[in-house]
Amino acid sequence: MSLLHLAIIAPFLLAVFVPILYKHMKKVHTGWFVLPLPILLFAYFVSFISTTSNKQTVTESFSWISALGIDFTAKVDGLGLLFTLLITGIGALVVLYSIYYLSKDTEKLNTFYVYLLLFMGAMLGVVLSDNLIVLYLFWELTSFSSFLLIGYWYDREKSRYGAQKSMIITVFGGLAMLGGIILLYIMTGTFSITEIIAQSDVILSHPLFVPALLCFLLGAFTKSAQFPFHIWLPDAMEAPTPVSAYLHSATMVKAGIYLVARMSPVFAEHSLWLWLIAGFGLVTLFWGSFSAVKQTDLKSILAFSTVSQLGLIMSLLGIGAAALHFDNIDPALFTVATTAAVFHLINHATFKGSLFMVVGIVDHETGTRDIRKLGGLMNLMPITFTIAIIGAFSMAGLPPFNGFLSKEMFFTGMLSILNMDFNWGILFPVGAWIASVFTFIYSMIIVFKTFTGKYQPEKLEKKPHEAPIGMLISPIILASLVIIFGFFPNILSNSVLEPALQTIMPGFAFDVHIGFWHGFNAELLMTIGVVVVGILLYLTLSKWRSVYGIFPEKLALNRFYDNGLDWMQKGSHSLTNSYMSGSIRNYLAYMFSFIIILLTATLFGKDAFAVNTENVADIGPHEVILASMIAIASVAIMFTKTRITSIILTGTIGYLVSLFFVIFRAPDLALTQLVIETISVSLFLLCFYHLPKKLTDDPVSFKVRNAIIAVGVGAVVTLIALSAHSNKLFDSISQYYIENTYSEAAGGNMVNVILVDFRGFDTMFEITVLGIAALGIYGLIKLRKTGGKKL
Amino acid sequence: MEILMAFIIGILFMSATYLMLSRSIVRIIIGTTVLSHGAHLLILTMGGLKGGSAPLVGENASAYTDPLPQALILTAIVIAFGVTALFLVLGYRSYKELGTDNMEKLRGTEGND
């Protein structure tokens, strides 16, 4: 256990104390107790920058289930560090923001901060684990904490719906990823990412390589809300806004991007990796930005915008992988895409985080997020307005903000695809450009529909005014970062970007210099085009908005999800009902059938069936007669229809069995059986009068089914009896009893001595069983329901 | 002899299974009784038959029949009796109270269906 492990576990430890602090320190907002932790962790992880920027990594291992190759190995490298800084940095700002957002008088702060810390620890675990199984555990824990946080206001129908949806989709992907992890283990024999990367050349031609690749992509796409799995993200906006800013835009949804980046050295050699990621990324980018424009809820716009931006980063990572795939083209053409992806990852966290907080403030101060009701807030909330301008303009890709820089690099990356020998390559820059136009439009909608236009106080629930300063600190910090990274992007180059890129693409040299001015190149012209067309379309929005009505609601993905879920619930319900009939007799039939199948399969599968005719006892004629009688009686009992015949035949079998005991030299058994059989028959006869005269008969088809099962059971038991006699795997333990009966227990009758001496406890429990049965019989005969009155 | 017994045991199990799957409660009770007979003979046969004289020290024989299966069966016979007795009374009571021995008609009286 090292300090690094402690840093990952610290949020979980604090989560244990949060309910106690909440209970006993009601006067102080619980958030103040939580806030120091992410700040401390952030400071701790910043100290690693000097290590990773020298291309060094820190690995600490903690033995867990070593026998299965599962150890809690934490590894800090460039990529992991970038994410830890995001998690702890944005985490600190979000906690600070939440202190002012969530009222300590009305909200359940204890559960909120427990969930939030649970997420923080899990997310740190995801990005620092080198062992895939440990990564998977933390991965599912992030899905789980996200589920809890979306359902935080669980009394709302929509919260529950959104929580369930996100859980189903992300856990589905998580399970697929687990499948991929196991496939990788089969190929490489290790769960360690570092060791798997070392073997990446070997596994490339393995037949399981492509299935493993697809499984991992399914995990990454569901988590990072890629088309068509993006549908959970808009519904996740039911969570409190600090959660949306933290999990659903800055960190958790980027876990899929992290996974793609992390596994790139393993999979990127394969062309499927390149095209699937770039293709799905591009579709997501376009669809997200297109759908964002039609939303009227500010948070929905941001949700679709996040989907779109995640697609952007994803597609860039896909194109960057081309550097590994094509040997004859200069890799520097493609690595710029990866650089853009990582840079935009950081920028997105800053501008989207600040925008979410702005929307939270607007919601908090006006009571609505509907752009049809909002407007003219500019004069009332000047600081919020300024932050919104910075965030939205950065998102739209306007200078001098950081979004402009990464957008330019994004265009460069998209244009680089033209260098490939690929006819449809032109689709990528064209699609990217169209998506950027829509991005520009919804960025403008967020700012101008909210803060300019007509002020409509009658539609608002509260009288709006500027947010308290505490609530503004976090977005101000993020907005300042937007500007700082915009003017001085190279402070990130050496410290964060290069080490992260080195991890994603080992073996390439990275020397990142980000600048504003590259001359009048294609990228700049594309940006100018975006701005011009974007402004035109924004101004004419009301004229072409009807475009969105063309798309039939029936084909919407959400409809598929809802119907699918409904169908699965009904299907599983009717499937279960079809065999869980509530009749024990049916269950008995299943059990017997299963016994037949299982025993037969085991008997022949393990090659245990054998018939050994040596060493068998002789058969006398009287034994054959007895055996035939018992067989006839057993078969006859199946067909009797009256009570008296049944009882007589049962008695017959019992007495015949006791005769067999005599033949087989078991005097005690024979005596006991005779006595017991006599009592049993007497008991049967005692009840005789009360039993139905004619026994209920079964329908023929029912009889046939039972007969088949019965014959099967009989056959299997015969086979087992034959094999049990023929295979003697080891010596019987009986010899011990035979030798020691007299010397140890001073008894002559071995059976009796075993029962009362060697296995005395068995006999005691046997008596207990009889006692319980006797009590049951007494109760059944004597006790009556009397409606509470005594007889 | 063991081979013959294997078939007899099979027939007993077959008959018992058939009876236990029936609708009549009396048949089910008889089925459990027959099943216990089959199981007893199975245990005895597994241990080997007629391996020597009866397991009594006084016999002074060179070989004895395996005493262990016999001890197990002795316990089983008694328990089987207890179970049969309980079932029988249960069948008797339910027939008295409900007027049928048909399991199909005994369903759902608790209000679940």
Automatic annotation (TrEMBL), chain A:
Origin superkingdom: Bacteria
MrpA C-terminal/MbhD domain residues: 629-693
Coiled coil ranges: none
Signal sequence range: none
Record-annotated NADH:quinone oxidoreductase/Mrp antiporter transmembrane domain positions: 129-428
Localization terms from the record: Cell membrane; Membrane
The entry's keywords: Antiport, Cell membrane, Hydrogen ion transport, Ion transport, Membrane, Sodium, Sodium transport, Transmembrane, Transmembrane helix, Transport
Residue ranges occupied by any MrpA C-terminal/MbhE domain in the UniProt entry: 703-782
Transmembrane portions of the chain: 6-22, 29-49, 79-100, 112-128, 134-154, 166-187, 202-222, 243-260, 272-290, 302-326, 332-359, 380-402, 422-448, 469-488, 524-541, 587-604, 624-640, 647-664, 670-692, 704-724, 763-781
Membrane topology summary: Multi-pass membrane protein
Family (UniProt): Belongs to the CPA3 antiporters (TC 2.A.63) subunit A family.
Protein name: Multicomponent Na+:H+ antiporter subunit A
Originating species: Cytobacillus purgationiresistens
Classification of source organism: Bacteria, Bacillati, Bacillota, Bacilli, Bacillales
Automatic annotation (TrEMBL), chain B:
Transmembrane region(s): 6-21, 28-49, 69-90
Record keyword tRNA processing present: no
Taxonomic superkingdom: Bacteria
InterPro entries: CPA3_antiporter_subunitC, NUOK/Mnh_C1-like
Subcellular localization, as worded in the UniProt entry: Cell membrane
Entry keywords, A to Z: Cell membrane, Membrane, Transmembrane, Transmembrane helix
Main subcellular location: membrane
Membrane topology: Multi-pass membrane protein
NCBIfam families referenced in this protein's UniProt entry, alphabetically: PRK08600.1 (NF006372), PRK12660.1 (NF009303)
Cross-referenced PANTHER family: ANTIPORTER SUBUNIT MNHC2-RELATED
Similarity comment: family membership: Belongs to the CPA3 antiporters (TC 2.A.63) subunit C family.
Protein name (Swiss-Prot/TrEMBL): Multicomponent Na+:H+ antiporter subunit C
Organism, as annotated: Cytobacillus purgationiresistens
